[in-house]
Specification:
The chain is α/β, with parallel strands linked by helices. The protein has helices at about 5-20, 25-35, 45-55, 60-75, 80-95, 100-115, 130-140, 150-170, 200-215, 230-240, 255-260, 285-295, and strands at about 170-175, 180, 190-195, 220-230, 250, 265-270, 275-280. Strands 5-4-3-6-7 form a five-stranded mixed β-sheet, with helices on one face. A two-stranded antiparallel sheet has the order 1-2. Helix 3 packs parallel to helix 5 (about 80-95) and helix 4 packs parallel to helix 6. The N and C termini lie far apart (about 55 Å). About 35% of the residues are buried. Mean pLDDT is about 90; it is low at about 1-40.
């Protein structure tokens, strides 16, 4: 395959990521195909594509079983550009909740195998997105995946560097009531910083659990700071329909999103009472998962 064709596929992976975060899977596949991918799906690939597109509509227990089976089904496919696309797509959706480590391991194994079969080039000076996706599963979801590829190693190094920045990060933002909040002035509190937006389905799904935890632990020192990069005109009507009691902070210029290297939402970071970053979530979390994160900060 020519370098030009590979570069087009790499760009399609980046586009696919944005679509996964914001819209339905079938739309992502059709648009990425129009931008340079082979639009033909085999009789074995098309059903997998369609099942991935409907994962968010499934109950969590069914979604867990389906995700694991899809990982196995993708692994059995012959080597094609679509195989890597499917593996990457499934990985992107596999962290939206608590579907079990066994499921995530199968997803990670499938993505690593697809990348061995069909490596993709760098995206400029950055590792191509599938390598970042796999590195994220390894670093934050404790998936085991051995991939002898410089891009994978670079992705792992970049994630470590991002965490070092987040450990030292500070910001001051104003909430919807006009109150100013500064992260480093909250020593003595357990702070959960949550990045979200009104248009994000996984963000909306985890908000009731976050609110329940805030009500439960706010008198024990928990502070939740929910950071949205939209303007107040979008956020206020949304919260009228879906009210929460924890502070909503506005970051319309995305300075704090960029400071934390936020490239997909929701993401959450827990700082203990000494200001140490002790836990983070790369995607939507259940109340049980949030409790485990808060437990690492000594809040139980």
């Amino acid at each position: 395959m020519s370098q030009t064709k590979l570069a087009m596929n790499t760009n399609a992976f980046v586009l696919a990521t944005a679509f996964f975060v914001t819209v339905a899977m079938p739309l992502m596949f059709s648009r990425s195909a129009a931008r340079g991918q082979n639009a033909t799906w085999t009789k074995d690939e098309a059903p997998i594509r369609d099942q991935i597109g409907h994962l968010r509509s499934l109950p969590d227990d069914v979604r867990a079983r389906t995700t694991k089976q899809l990982a196995l089904d993708i692994r059995r496919l012959p080597k094609t550009a679509q195989k890597l696309n499917l593996a990457n797509a499934l990985a992107n959706l596999s962290t939206e909740g608590d579907f079990g480590h066994d499921t995530l391991q199968e997803v990670g194994t499938t993505l690593a195998d697809a990348l061995r079969e069909q490596p993709v080039p760098m995206n400029g000076n950055e590792p191509a997105f599938p390598y970042v996706e796999l590195a994220t599963l390894v670093r934050y979801e404790h998936v085991q995946a051995a991939l002898d590829n410089p891009q994978f190693n670079l992705a792992m190094s970049k994630l470590e560097a991002d965490d070092q920045v987040r450990q030292k990060a500070d910001f001051t933002l104003t909430d919807l009531q006009g109150k100013s909040w500064t992260l480093r002035e909250l020593h003595g509190k357990v702070v959960l910083v949550n990045f979200w937006a009104t248009w994000c389905p996984p963000c909306r799904k985890e908000m009731p659990d976050l609110d329940a935890l805030y009500k439960r632990f706010k008198d024990h020192g928990l502070v939740i700071l929910a950071v949205d990069d939209e303007d107040a005109g979008k956020v206020k009507p949304f919260l009228t329909e879906r009210p929460v009691t924890y502070p909503i902070l506005l970051d319309p210029g995305r300075k704090i999103n960029d400071l934390f290297h936020i490239d997909g939402i929701p993401k959450s970071f827990v700082y203990d009472r000494e200001g140490k970053l002790v836990a983070q979530a790369i995607d939507m979390r259940t109340q049980k998962q949030f409790l485990e994160m808060l437990g690492r900060a000594g809040l139980r």
